[in-house]
Amino acid sequence: MIDLLIAARKDAGLSQMQVGERLGQRQTFVSKYELGERRLDAAEFVVIARAIGANPYSIMERSEKAE
Predict the structure, then answer these.
(1) DSSP labels for 45-66?
(2) Structurally, how many domains does the chain consist of?
(3) CA–CA separation, 41 and 56 (whole Å)
(4) How far apart are CA 67 and CA 47, in angstroms?
(5) Which H or E run contains 42?
(6) Environment class of 10 (CB within 10 Å of its CB; exposed 0-12, middle 13-18, buried 19+)
(7) Model's pTM, two decimal places?
């Protein structure tokens, strides 16, 4: 799912810094979960997807189909 979240961020034309600002976090927060150094819980995933402008449920569905 993280790969799809990264793709959604890039498709939205957003940098890690811009996403961090939208979340009230630093760019390093975004970098760490994108690199797999930090795990996201379900609530964080939903908040991040919405901050990017993506539908979190669509990302989850696409992730299931990719398996």
Answers:
(1) HHHHHHHHT--HHHHHHHHHHH
(2) 1
(3) 13
(4) 24
(5) helix 42-52
(6) exposed
(7) 0.91
What is the predicted pLDDT for the residue at 53?
97
In the chain, the percentage of residues whose pLDDT exceeds 90 is 94
Chain-centroid distance, C-alpha 52: 7
CATH number assigned to the domain comprising residue 17: 1.10.260.40
- Mean pLDDT for the stretch of residues 41-60: 97
What token pair was written down for 11? Answer: 């498709």
Domain that holds residue 13: 2-66
Q: CB-based burial of residue 36 (10 Å sphere; 0-12 exposed, 13-18 middle, 19+ buried)?
A: exposed
